[in-house]
Each structure stands twice: as structure tokens, then as C-alpha cells.
Model the fold of this input.
Amino acid sequence: MNRKKKIQSEFKKRLKRARAKLDGRPKGERYISKADRAKAEADAENSEIDSNAEKTGIEGGENG
Done:
């Protein structure tokens, strides 16, 4: 019984790895470094400021 169980468990492990390799779904969130997060946040803030300036008609923050 023990030998059969061991063979089956090895087969299941290999099958699981093969299916995981063929699976095209993303494996969850990938790591994003702190510098990249800060850069993305700064870009988001800049785009938000630019979009607000376009809505109000102010260019470069100048009054006049």
C-alpha cells in the first residue's frame, strides 16, 4: 500500500506542475519596488494636476 501511495503522490505532483506551467493565468500581483511605486504615484499626481488645469483652462498654473 505504501509503495502505491508514493507512486500516486509523485504522479500527482508532476501533473500539478505540468498543469501550472500550461496555465496562462497571472500568478497574483508581482512585486513592485518602492521606487517604482513612488514613480507611479508621482505620475498619477501629475496627470491629475494636468487634467484639472485643462478643465479650468489654466496653463502651467499661470493666472492671467
Observations:
- The mean pLDDT is 83.
- The two ends are 88 Å apart (CA to CA).
